[in-house]
Amino acid sequence: MNTVCFIFARGGSKGLPNKNIRPFAGKPLIAWAIEQAKAVHRIRRVIVSTDSTSIAEVAREYGAETPFMRPPELAGDNSPEWLAWRHALNYIQETEGSLPDAMISIPATAPLRFIDDIIACLDEFEKGNADVVITVTDAHRNPSFNMVKYTNDEFVGLVTPPAEGVFRRQDAPQVFDMATVAFVVDPKFVFSNSSIFSGRVRAVNVPTERAIDIDTLFDFEVAEFLMQRRTRNL
């Protein structure tokens, strides 16, 4: 299967400034995603889509391609990443004359993934009959039991009250947290739809300790501690 990997890494991060190139367990954060992608032989190209010259420079240093810069209008706080996906795929179509069989997005913010997690996502996509493969991890909260929201009278209530006769969390429908370990997508689906759940979505379950998504300094410090512990045990 002809697979191209994109790592989407914009420069403006309000939660943790410059997080994509912040030193993480001995190398810039984005370097982990690049090296993980390049270790998967089924991935033909590893391309970083960014609006930042600093990120692009680091990306090239670690072996990724940066053949274009992402336009500012696709790199703002409110810019849907879906449009950045389309922009990246347009580049492939215009320069190679056709779309790849699959696009895989490997976010820099989930460095604790294993290479086998990426391979598992590709395997699931190659089974066919899916537009998108996402990663999930077991949820520690359930909207029917211990997730609440404010109601119109400013009190709180359950997000989704349990069905009649369901009294234990274990008896409620199992729920999962979406993870950012990897996304495998049919490029044609990206052009004909505007969201992941517009199509047929399959999931690969990844252990929680490999699915931490870095958004804040706390996330960063927890993830770095786990990565350092992992590398010491190798």
Tell me about this structure.
The chain folds into two domains: 3-138 and 177-232, Spore Coat Polysaccharide Biosynthesis Protein SpsA, Chain A (Alpha-Beta Complex); 140-174, no CATH class. 29% of the residues lie in helices and 21% in strands. The protein is built from six helices and ten strands. The protein has helices at 29-38, 53-61, 81-96, 115-126, 187-192, 217-232, and strands spanning 3-8, 23-24, 27-28, 43-49, 102-105, 132-138, 148-150, 156-158, 176-185, 201-205. The strands form three sheets. A six-stranded mixed sheet has the order 4-1-5-9-6-10. The protein has a two-stranded antiparallel sheet with strand order 2-3. The protein has a two-stranded antiparallel ribbon with strand order 7-8. The model has no long low-confidence stretch (mean pLDDT 93).
Summary of the model, kept short:
The protein contains six helices and ten strands.
List keywords for this structure.
234 residues; alpha/beta; Spore Coat Polysaccharide Biosynthesis Protein SpsA, Chain A; six-stranded mixed sheet; two-stranded antiparallel ribbon; 29% helix
User: How many extended strands?
Assistant: 10
The main sheet orders its strands as 4-1-5-9-6-10
| CATH H-tier superfamily of the largest domain | Spore Coat Polysaccharide Biosynthesis Protein SpsA, Chain A
Helix content: 25-40%
Structural domains: how many: 2
Biggest sheet overview: 6 strands, mixed
CATH topology of the largest domain: Spore Coat Polysaccharide Biosynthesis Protein SpsA, Chain A
Helix and strand string, N-terminal first? EEEHEHHEHEEEEHEH
Give the class-level CATH name of the largest domain: Alpha Beta
The number of helices is 6
- The SS-based structural class is alpha/beta
What is the typical, i.e. mean, pLDDT? 93
Low-confidence stretches: none
Measured between the Cα atoms of the first and last residue, the distance is 32 Å
GO molecular function: N-acylneuraminate cytidylyltransferase activity
Protein name: Acylneuraminate cytidylyltransferase family protein
Keywords: Nucleotidyltransferase, Transferase
InterPro entries: CMP-NeuNAc_synthase, Cytidylyl_trans, Nucleotide-diphossugar_trans
